[in-house]
Amino acid sequence: MLRRCAGELVEPMMLIKEGLRKSSVIGVDETSLRGKGRQDWVHVSATDNLTLLVHDNRRGTPAITEIDILPQYQRVAVHDGFSSYDRYGQCRHAQCNAHILRELNYVIETSRPQWAVAMKALLLEIKVVVDKARESGRKKLAPCRKAEFLRKYDESIEVGTKLYGTLRRKKGRTKKPPAAESVIRAAGRKLAGRMEAIRADILLFMHDFSVPFDNNGSERDLRMIKVKQKISGCFRTSVGAQEFCRLRSYVATMKKQGRGVMETIKSVFAGTTIMPALRR
Q: pTM above 0.85?
């Protein structure tokens, strides 16, 4: 039954891919999946209107390229900073700030550096201001408000620089080996260095209100994969995993578009498959 249903969803999957490539903002993510005797991966590309889940035994660039969303995408991709996504430079990148907040929480809980406390407070403050501005119908923040937030951001990074001495260690041989560094201190230093390097990605949601603060939407789309794995333990075959992802992509997309699960599945078996609507 699953195979029959999945076999009827080729055209809807093509439409979902087309819609994702044309969307102004997409979220991308991946999660591990236990296959028969190995670890596989499920990749998600999603908007508030569309969901595409793809099973692959690879995690990085080869799988992402074969899925063929990001290679053609030219707008804003929101993700958790996984290095393979950064290879696609034709699109703009936005950082999932939920991940940044988790890392800041770790640094704060382990060593409580002033820069991390200030940075966490700043990101949450910007989120509140942006949300209120969006709800009131505004399209952007006042230039003076953005300048104030940028100044505070840079001040926090400067405090981190004074604390750690240098945020990014030079690679290769040096005349004098660097002093030993604790794991906790290294975590803080590396996070501060990354936040300095990708400031534009982290704060893109402040400049462009169409960009979300985080990538939680894509993570929610992956949640059913974890539920399925928790119940079944693993997929016995790659074909079964692929069919499940195809059916789940269709059902999740139609739910986002206001369709009932039984309504959409019945349409597939009746030969009158309801097609997903595309909008930018």
A: yes
At 1 the pLDDT is 66
Which of the listed residues 207, 228, 246 is the one where a domain comes to its end?
207
Of 207, 235, 254, the domain-final residue: 207
- The number of helices, as runs of H, and strands, as runs of E, in the chain is 12, 5
| Closest residue by Cα to residue 252 from 50, 20, 5, 18 | 50
pLDDT score recorded for residue 159: 97
Sheet holding 25-35, edge to edge: 51-56, 38-46, 25-35, 76-79, 92-95
Q: How confident is the model at residue 164 (pLDDT cuts 50, 70, 90)?
A: very high
Contact 256, 64 (CB under 8 A): no
Give the number of residues written for the chain. 280
Kindly report the backbone phi and psi dihedral angles of residue 213, in degrees, each rounded to the nearest multiple of 5, phi listed first.
Answer: -65, -30
